[in-house]
Design goal:
The chain is mainly beta. Helices cover about 10% and strands about 70% of the residues. The chain has two helices and ten strands, in the order H-E-H-E-E-E-E-E-E-E-E-E. It has an eight-stranded antiparallel beta barrel. Strand 8 and strand 9 form a beta hairpin. The radius of gyration is 21 Å and the shape is elongated.
């Protein structure tokens, strides 16, 4: 960072800023999740897992080092989590269904190194995240009747800080609008006690504008 800002201070390039928002598909990976999925095989499809579809939005600044390379720190609110669904059918009719969703909200702070080649962009860098809130929302129904609709705060059961490597590609148009696709690879265990080998993973597709 010191080298980057020292170089920037001597360069004759104008910094900029922008906003970006988009959709995300987030889930958890690791030995614990793989073992859990292995157990689900015995459920014969009655219990399934899925990533959580959410959104992210925030601001960033661009600090050019030369005509092609820039440093891009940013701050984003990002939805992450995980989904477990279960269903039991009787003679072709759904008898019992239940869903449990882990809904977590993070403040993501990426620090990207970005290369721009005639509008085509490649970026990579570390990302630090702070867990703002985590909830488990559980619903269950029997023969079409709602039996359970409960939301429980589980923030204390998760590690507040997360670190990841993020990277992706994008394209910046001449009018400042840009599109991007990125992947976040979590490196920190999400369990507060760090006993469970599970990590955040997410794909993001974003639309932004540079000012």
């Amino acid at each position: 960072m010191a080298i980057a800002f020292t170089t920037f201070s001597h360069a004759q390039f104008t910094p900029g800023f922008g906003i970006k928002a988009g959709l995300s598909s987030a889930g958890m990976r690791g030995d614990a999740i793989d073992n859990f999925k292995g157990l689900l095989d015995f459920a014969d499809g009655r219990i399934t897992t899925a990533d959580r579809t959410g959104f992210f939005a925030g601001i960033f600044t661009s600090l050019p080092l030369d005509k092609m390379i820039s440093i891009e720190p940013g701050v984003y609110y990002s939805q992450k989590g995980y989904v477990v669904k279960g269903a039991l059918s009787f003679k072709g009719t759904e008898f019992l269904n239940a869903t449990s969703k882990l809904q977590s909200g993070y403040l993501d702070i990426p620090l990207l190194v970005k290369a721009d080649i005639d509008g085509f962009q490649i970026f990579v860098g570390p990302q630090f995240s702070y867990l703002m809130k985590a909830e488990v929302k559980s619903t269950a129904g029997l023969l079409g009747f709602n039996l359970l609709n409960n939301t429980m705060n589980v923030t204390d059961q998760f590690n507040r800080w997360d670190m990841a490597i993020t990277g992706g590609v994008g394209y910046k148009f001449s009018n400042g609008i840009n599109i991007s696709a990125a992947y976040d690879h979590g490196l920190s265990k999400v369990d507060a006690n760090k006993n469970i080998n599970s990590y955040n993973r997410s794909f993001k597709i974003g639309l932004g504008i540079n000012f």
